[in-house]
């Protein structure tokens, strides 16, 4: 049987429809980049944020690959693709090639734009730096914009997961209200992901029944 036939047998219509509904809300204009984030649990928390607000892919730029922690991500790493890149030049070149402007997140830059005053470009790659040092000098230089979350208490910064939740939600809603041709994922990309998700679910069902899934 082909994939569609297997899906008819092992996936409910409601499950397949849910895939379509989620993909229809995925944003093509917003992605998230992690630069040398040291604790993979922080990335896992941010994947849950990305999934919740419609970001379907993130880039992990650094020295190693992202290691899943599904207790923290709550399985959001099944629905958000993580692209692991090791070279700064490759990361920046790929984002520019895809039409993204790099928007760096900072807490110590007086010239940064407060988040609620920021008018995002057509496509935003929101860049988070390491927990200790923030963005590297070369990444700051590569960013077309710098944004910050204003704070008014003794705490002048937020942990990575909280900062990501505030910023991603704000930008996602700004884009949805604004609309535009780059808002959603292209139809072809939605279909690719739909078939990927269906195939993964079917394989899981087959394995649980002891049926070879290759």
Describe how the helices and strands are arranged:
Layout: H1 3-10, H2 13-24, E1 30-35, H3 40-53, E2 57-61, H4 70-73, E3 81-85, H5 88-97, E4 101-105, E5 113-114, E6 124-128, H6 137-142, E7 145-148, H7 160-178, H8 187-208
Parallel strand pairs: 1-2, 1-6, 2-3, 4-6, 4-7, 5-7
Helix pairs in contact: 1-8, 2-8, 3-7
Oligomer: single chain
The shape is globular
Kindly report the name of the CATH homologous superfamily: SPOUT methyltransferase, trefoil knot domain
pLDDT below 50 for ≥5 consecutive residues: which ranges? none
Describe the model.
- The protein has 214 residues and is of the alpha/beta class.
- It has a single domain (31-186), classed as SPOUT methyltransferase, trefoil knot domain (Alpha/beta knot, 3-Layer(aba) Sandwich), CATH 3.40.1280.10.
- The protein contains eight helices and seven strands; from the N terminus they run H-H-E-H-E-H-E-H-E-E-E-H-E-H-H.
- The protein has a seven-stranded parallel beta sheet, with helices on both faces.
- Helix 1 crosses helix 8, helix 2 runs antiparallel to helix 8 and helix 3 (40-53) runs parallel beside helix 7 (160-178).
- The longest helix is centred in the last third of the chain and has 22 residues, at 187-208.
- The chain is globular, with a radius of gyration of 19 Å.
- The chain starts with a helix and ends in a 6-residue tail after the last helix.
- The model has no long low-confidence stretch (mean pLDDT 92).
């Amino acid at each position: 049987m082909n994939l569609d036939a297997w899906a008819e047998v092992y996936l409910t219509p409601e499950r397949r429809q849910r895939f379509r509904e989620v993909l229809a809300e995925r944003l093509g204009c917003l992605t998230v980049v992690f630069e040398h984030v040291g604790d993979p649990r922080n990335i896992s928390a941010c994947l849950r944020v990305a999934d919740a607000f419609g970001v379907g892919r993130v880039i992990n730029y650094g020295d190693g690959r992202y290691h899943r922690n599904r207790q923290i991500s709550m399985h959001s790493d099944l629905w958000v693709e993580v692209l692991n890149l090791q070279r700064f030049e490759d990361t920046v070149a790929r984002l520019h090639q895809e039409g993204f402007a790099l928007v760096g997140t900072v807490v110590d830059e007086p010239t940064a734009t407060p988040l609620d005053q920021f008018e995002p470009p057509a496509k935003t790659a929101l860049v988070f730096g390491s927990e200790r040092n923030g963005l590297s000098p070369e990444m700051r230089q590569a960013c077309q914009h710098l944004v910050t979350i204003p704070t008014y208490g003794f705490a002048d910064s937020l942990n990575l997961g909280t900062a990501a939740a505030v910023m991603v939600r704000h930008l996602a809603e700004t884009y949805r209200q604004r609309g535009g041709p780059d808002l959603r994922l292209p139809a072809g990309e939605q279909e690719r992901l739909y078939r990927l998700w269906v195939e993964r679910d079917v394989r899981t069902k087959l394995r649980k029944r002891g049926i070879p899934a290759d």
